[in-house]
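Students often ask why inverse folding is considered easier than folding. One informal answer: many sequences map to the same fold, so there is more than one right answer. In these notes we will look at a single instance of the problem. The structure comes first.
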């Protein structure tokens, strides 16, 4: 198992405390989605330092979503930042890990975390004003489909895990999102989940 984080020193203790199988080990590498060469450098480190010869599954999990405003008030620099992390970040990760994925002895998979907000069909009815976030996720969905079409040896798809309470959201932001969505979506009160359930499903089916 390889965990890629922006700051390995800050994340090591928490990651090392997670449970793992008796024959499993955890390797922590640095990948900052904004750093152009981090993914390729991490792939080289995995091979040169840890003797990793292949990877079976890559999950592009990093992302940001911290601007809530109508399109006319959304700053261009905020859109650029969301695209840099949410769109170019997974593309850089794929490019950096492609060689290791291609050497998998199983059916290799490249999975991108997406969201219902990226749906063009739901754009006009979704209650949150997320032009920067939604556009960046729609764009990465397109890239994901292109990878799927171009790499016939690789299983590539986006996954929307549902409305997950994560550390990127403050308590105030969670409450604001919750109240806004409850007003618009019937039954939404029951849909917030912690990260464990969706990831347990993924692991079960690998």
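Output (designed amino acids):
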């Amino acid at each position: 198992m390889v965990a890629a984080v922006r700051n390995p020193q800050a994340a090591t203790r928490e990651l090392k405390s997670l449970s793992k199988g008796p024959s499993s080990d955890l390797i922590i590498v640095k990948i900052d989605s904004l750093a152009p060469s981090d993914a390729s450098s991490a792939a080289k480190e995995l091979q040169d330092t840890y003797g990793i010869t292949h990877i079976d599954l890559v999950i592009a999990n990093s992302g940001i979503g911290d601007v809530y405003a109508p399109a006319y008030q959304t700053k261009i620099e905020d859109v650029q930042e969301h695209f840099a992390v949410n769109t170019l970040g997974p593309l850089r990760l794929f490019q950096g890990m492609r060689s290791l994925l291609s050497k998998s002895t199983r059916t290799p998979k490249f999975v991108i975390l997406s969201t219902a907000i990226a749906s063009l069909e739901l754009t006009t009815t979704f209650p949150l004003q997320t032009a920067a976030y939604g556009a960046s996720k729609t764009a990465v969905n397109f890239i994901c489909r292109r990878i799927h079409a171009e790499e016939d040896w690789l299983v590539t798809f986006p996954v929307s895990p549902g409305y997950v309470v994560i550390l990127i959201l403050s308590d105030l932001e969670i409450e604001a999102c919750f109240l806004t969505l409850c007003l618009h979506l019937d039954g939404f009160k029951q849909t917030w989940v912690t990260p464990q359930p969706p990831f347990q499903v993924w692991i079960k089916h690998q």
